Amino acid sequence: MVEALVQRLAAFQRLTPPESDALRGLGQSVMRASKGVQMLAAECAADRTILIHHGWAMIYRDLNDGRRQIMQFCLPGDLVDPCSLLVSRRDFAIAAITPVTYSEVTLDDLTQIISEHPHLALPLLWNEAREIYLLRRHLLSVGRMTAVERLASLFMELSDRLSIAGIAAGGSFNLHATQQMVGDATGLSAVHVSRTIRSMEQDKLIERSGHNRLTIDRKRLQKLIPDLMTVPA
Fold first, then answer.
1. What 3-state DSSP class applies to 157?
2. Per DSSP, what are the bridge partners of residue 209?
3. pLDDT, position 49
4. Model pTM?
5. CA distances in angstroms from 174 to 155, 169, 177, 218, 223, listed in the order given
6. CA 193 → CA 92, 95, 198, distances in Å?
7. In the chain, is it the N or the C terminus that has fewer CB atoms within a 10 Å radius of its CB?
8. Quick one: CA dihedral 38, 42, 48, 50, positive or negative?
9. Closest to 81 measured CA to CA, from 123, 54, 48, 103
10. Is the CB of residue 165 less than 8 Å from the CB of residue 1?
């Protein structure tokens, strides 16, 4: 699913065939991680990051007392926090939520691409600005929103990002995160998440089907949190 990254950057700025091929080159060496496996550890040298091909992963940090904060769910086409390559040690870990295929990307890889294709610098910077926007959105959600608003924001974000990657449509997608993970991402307990999801179902804001299929009523969810912008394409 490296193509998802290429298409995302091409939506911001038209790419030449050599530029597109250079981005695809980041995903030539494919690795695999089983569900639950930590792909990169916190407090280790920040000498590489990952590009997700298939599957879901998460950026997170565990506290000494066992509490966990999930900063971001990583989806197909995501080049995970390349700015972390500029510091000496990584302050977060990355683990697979589902079986994941991915490629490791180093600062040298990105530096070489930009050196050979200077016009890629701006779309890559825009892609990182998009990730920073999502982090600010999460901060606003956890800091000031109600439980329903937090879940509405998260579900709309996932729907948008999966649609951009070409693996969701019509507000319907597979939610691979458990209720505990949703809680760790939104600052809620798993019990509170469960109750809130049931309440949202009763109000016809969302619908669950099958094992993990979720369909959202985007227009109604948007009315709950009109101050949030749509995830940049």
1. helix
2. 213
3. 95
4. 0.93
5. 11, 11, 9, 16, 23
6. 24, 22, 9
7. C
8. positive
9. 48
10. yes
Question: Are 136 and 72 spatial neighbours (Cβ–Cβ below 8 Å)?
Answer: no
Angle at the Cα of 88 from the Cα atoms of 20 and 24, rounded to 5 degrees: 10
- What is the dihedral sign for C-alpha 72, 77, 81, 227? negative
CA distances from 114 to 80, 108, 110, 162, 195 (A): 17, 10, 6, 27, 48
How far is 92 from 69, CA to CA, in rounded Å?
Answer: 10
Burial of 170 (0-12, 13-18, 19+ CB in 10 A): exposed
- Do 206 and 197 meet the contact criterion of CB atoms below 8 Å apart? yes
Length of the chain in terms of residues written: 233
What distances in angstroms separate CA 91 from CA 27, 43, 87, 167, one per listed residue? 24, 6, 9, 30
Encoded tokens for 106: 């180093």
Determine the distance from the C-alpha atom of residue 14 to the mean position of all C-alpha atoms in its chain, rounded to a whole number.
23
pLDDT tens per residue, the chain (233 residues)? Answer: 689 999 889 988 999 999 999 999 998 899 999 999 999 999 899 999 999 999 999 999 999 999 999 999 999 999 999 999 999 999 999 999 999 999 999 999 999 999 999 999 999 999 999 999 999 999 999 999 999 999 999 999 999 999 888 888 889 999 999 999 999 999 999 999 999 999 999 999 999 998 899 999 999 999 998 777 777 76
User: Can you read off the two tokens belonging to residue 136?
Assistant: 């600010």
Q: What is the DSSP string of 25-80?
A: HTTSS-EEE-TT-EEE-TTSB---EEEEEES-EEEEEE-TTS-EEEEEEE-TT-B-
